[in-house]
Amino acid sequence: MLKSGVPFPAVDRAQTTYYGISYDNAKKMRQERLSPALFLYYKSPVMLNQGHMQWIWDHTGKRYLDMYAGIVTVSVGHCHPKVNQAAREQMDKLWHTTNIYMHPRIHEYAEKLTERLPGNLKVCFFCNSGSEANDLAMLMAKLYTGATDIISLRNAYHGINGCTVGLCGVGSWKFMVPGISGIHHTMNPDPYKGLWGGSHCRDSPVQTQRQCSCETNQCQATNQYIEQLQEIFKYSLPKKRIAAFFAESIQGVGGTVQFTKGYLKKAFEMVRERGGLCVSDEVQTGFVRTGSHYWGFQNHDVVPDIVTMAKGIGNGYPLAAVVTTPEISKTLSEATFFNTFGGNPVACAVGSTVLDIIDEEKHMENCNRIGKHLLDQLAKLRDEFEIVGDVRGKGLMIGVELVTSKESKNPLPVSDMNDIFEDCKEMGLIIGKGGESGNVFRIKPPMCITQADADFCVAVMRKAFSNYVQRTNN
């Protein structure tokens, strides 16, 4: 039992003793030897020492339930024994070789991965991060179409390297330097805070409390957001052809924002009519996280031309991929293309094992069942607390937006968010933050969590909200 009075779920793993650099020395080295751009969570940052499935321990031995999974990256569990074993066995055989040589793992993995994708999405390019994958997708789209104009959504996040930062539609992630030309941002079809949408408009067990006149499977808001996209086509794009349209299946960094029903399907149709390619960013929503399909785009009844993936693909190992059709893939043969680390033997062994675990441990079913339970319980917090404006998501891709009042929907101030955030940490719960104003708690845990873990998460958040209300009322 924690000091908060919230029962801590049991774990069948003992903590290990920490023997590394002292906490104070680590803070000093961070200030002197690491980039100041590497920001830290919490007033007293956590220095992690150990992980096991959904649990992490700091250097003092304090245990936390990890409901953020290293930013939606630890898919099947911290230090999953089967993943660890696969990595060790491959390291003992062949640690590294580049893809100018053949090695078994890359071929076996490519077949296994593409078997899980629909249509003619059958050709892989392996790389190391989601930013790199989206950068490569941008290049292929331009080469294949002969066009350069690309559309993404406001509030989107597709990485922040030199090219993909142009796709980013969240101002807090942008630097004051010129981006690449030809990127256009269209209005985000957000049923909660957008101009249109309401209580029948998103694919989630929990709908926004905002009312709308839409009938089941007839989202009028989608038509209005599509009209905004048509305006982009009409006034901002060349008449002949465009290169691509990028979209996450559920926006991650932007605060777990779901689109109005049917929007992506209509948007894809419009893009293809103009000769463009449709790119689905599955960096956060892929690998069964949404609970109903293997890939988030399948929830929208679409098949993209290019799929980018990273994060959960390797359970934390640096691994990413771009999967496309044979025809589109040939574009990279027009010049020499190479990636030193993409598809190295250890990465492919890890990625292949992650796919096996997802199937063997029935993570899709777990994401669906625990996700619905967690969303239902979090919805009770929305009904209980004025500061909880919206609860949304699908599977284990969940957001909780905090506001000053339900009527205004104004974001809860950063200082207040941080107070609640700190309170959750002190009670043993690790969650993330997102949204343009940083007022959305992001709950995206390892997919092995249990109902007891979900209940602990809700209990801690309820206590933290209650503490906040008590402080502000005194």
From TrEMBL:
Listed cofactors: pyridoxal 5'-phosphate
The record, for InterPro entries, names:
Aminotrans_3, Aminotrans_3_PPA_site, PyrdxlP-dep_Trfase, PyrdxlP-dep_Trfase_major, PyrdxlP-dep_Trfase_small
Q: Which UniProt keywords apply?
A: Aminotransferase, Mitochondrion, Pyridoxal phosphate, Transferase, Transit peptide
User: Could you say which EC number(s) this protein's record lists?
Assistant: 2.6.1.18, 2.6.1.40, 2.6.1.44
Question: Quick one: signal sequence residues?
Answer: none
Return the broad EC class: transferase
Q: Where in the cell is it found?
A: Mitochondrion
Can you state which reaction this protein catalyses?
N(omega),N(omega)-dimethyl-L-arginine + glyoxylate = 5-(3,3-dimethylguanidino)-2-oxopentanoate + glycine; L-ornithine + glyoxylate = 5-amino-2-oxopentanoate + glycine; oxaloacetate + L-alanine = L-aspartate + pyruvate; N(omega),N(omega)-dimethyl-L-arginine + 2-oxobutanoate = 5-(3,3-dimethylguanidino)-2-oxopentanoate + (2S)-2-aminobutanoate
Its family remark reads: Belongs to the class-III pyridoxal-phosphate-dependent aminotransferase family.
Q: What does this protein do?
A: Multifunctional aminotransferase with a broad substrate specificity. Catalyzes the conversion of glyoxylate to glycine using alanine as the amino donor. Catalyzes metabolism of not L- but the D-isomer of D-beta-aminoisobutyric acid to generate 2-methyl-3-oxopropanoate and alanine. Catalyzes the transfer of the amino group from beta-alanine to pyruvate to yield L-alanine and 3-oxopropanoate. Can metabolize NG-monomethyl-L-arginine (NMMA), asymmetric NG,NG-dimethyl-L-arginine (ADMA) and symmetric NG,N'G-dimethyl-L-arginine (SDMA).
Q: How does it assemble?
A: Homotetramer.
Q: What is this protein called?
A: Alanine--glyoxylate aminotransferase 2, mitochondrial
